[in-house]
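Moderator note: this is an archived Q&A kept for reference. The question asked for a predicted structure of one protein chain; the sequence and the answer are reproduced below.
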Amino acid sequence: MNVQTASRDELLAYIATLEAAVAALEARVRELEARGGEGAPRRMPGHKPEQRAAGAARPRKPRARGYGRCRSVPTEQVVHAVAQCPACGCALVGGSRQRSREVLELAPAPARVSEHVYLARRCPQCGRRCVPPPELAGVVVGRQRLGVGLVSLIATLRCVGRWPYGQIQRYLASVHGLRLSQGALVGAVRTVARQGAGAAAQIQEQVRASPVVHGDETGWRENGRNGDVWTFSTPTARLFVRGSRTGSVIDAALGGDFAGVLVSDFYAAYDHVPTPQRRCWAHLLRDVHALRQQHPDDVALATWATQLHRLYERGRAGATGPTPGPRAAQRRQWALRTRLQAELRARATLPPTEPPPVWRTLAGRLQRYEGELFTFVTEPGVPPDNNAAERSLRPLVTQRKISGGTRSSAGTTTLMVASTLFGTWLAQRRDPLPACRHLLALPQV
């Protein structure tokens, strides 16, 4: 339209059209803002997000202990004082404390090398040649030359810090002036595993006697062959074993006398365990969420998922605490568990539609494990998830992604025993370095 030659009525109509377009665009902007930006055009690459509106501060999660700055006990004191008056040059003595300043520093500590010399002495009366015994208990393990403190440090850096052997070599050389081969470092970790074999067996017995055990598994290759690392965890113990993907590993680890509750995911290898079981709700709800993301427009799926999540929340609200309650409360919890399982059975029943609903696979899982999903409602100390096993297995998953596995059965055995020891010490909130040193200082068998 040519605005130079258009009439007044044509210009007014054109202005009205522009105003209507502007009003429609403003309404669209308000709609996108109300939806939280969903469907809004993307920003330029590298554009910083808008600052969050000021509001009430979120409550901070309470920490187990305070991490504020606190003064340490000084190991030395350096006094700073002016010897002469800067104005007249008079000598100054005495003085009062004005202020102090704390400085923390680490000095390179060279390794201490002790040479134990054994003298042979001959008795002048009977002529017997006398040589003292080694008497190095608590100093070294066996006939090796690495002390228990150094062996404990190497094993802690390797198993807890997950340092590569090359990094441990560089640290010992630069900080302590100590040069060791990688074979010596491997031998140090193997010494800890060999000395701690008895302690690992006691940890296994502790796991077998526990009323609740969490189980999980992950892939682990040994010399190029596939297999799995299994973990069986309690609040104060961690057991790691390596084997096949079959249920025979579970039987060997827990033994035939295990009578506790086994918490696991939906892996079929756990199905044959005769004791009470509890399947992980976190795995189930995660799969439901992934299915909803695949079918965002399925209203029936959204309704089914919401009902399933409400069942889970009702179970959590009425779950037994860490210890059994009164008899009346126990009866109420058993009645709640019965009602929840009946409603879960109804959720697992597929409607007679063609095609069948998209959640038919998850419904089959509910039908198969309906009696093992609400065990936490009536069993004391049983959580609804399997986070304990997954968290205990996370360090080995990280190590597997870095190294790809182990090269021999001896290396796998060393890793499993060392992971059991250090994982248990960390679960018990013990400092692993002095705990390992105490283990190596015990009488050798």
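Archived answer notes: Residues 281-385 form one domain.
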